[in-house]
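REVIEWER CHECKLIST
Item 1: Sequence provided? yes
Item 2: Single chain? yes
Item 3: Sequence as submitted:
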Amino acid sequence: MAEKLDIDKIEVVDEIIITKEPVKDTKTEQVPVMHEELIIEMRPIAHDSSASLYHNNSIKLEKNILKPVENKTNIRIYLKREEIEVSRTPYVKEKIVVKKKPITETRTVTEEIINRRSQRFTNLISIFNNIR
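Item 4: Structure as written out by the authors:
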């Protein structure tokens, strides 16, 4: 009696999971921002012709600001400044393409089998014949 190898193939399904997950990253950018600063200067009043021209054009301003302070007076001045506003907008950066392709490869299968040699039978026959 002898053995021979019977080689069959079976199909096995492997599952592969592709996971998309967000990756946090820090992005730093330099942004110029503008703001106004208040500068207060104290100047002596000059009584020349250019000063009188200034006084004639802004009489109302002079009456309110340049008159001697008798009571506590508040002057409101608005200063502008820029603030940074950050918003995030999602966009498609890249797309993922998933493909399957069959690949055929050759594998070597090595198994031990039992095989009886006819030489042994021949030796047994010759011994059996010698006994007769």
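Item 5: Key structural point noted by reviewer: The chain has a mean pLDDT of 80.
Item 6: Recommendation: ____
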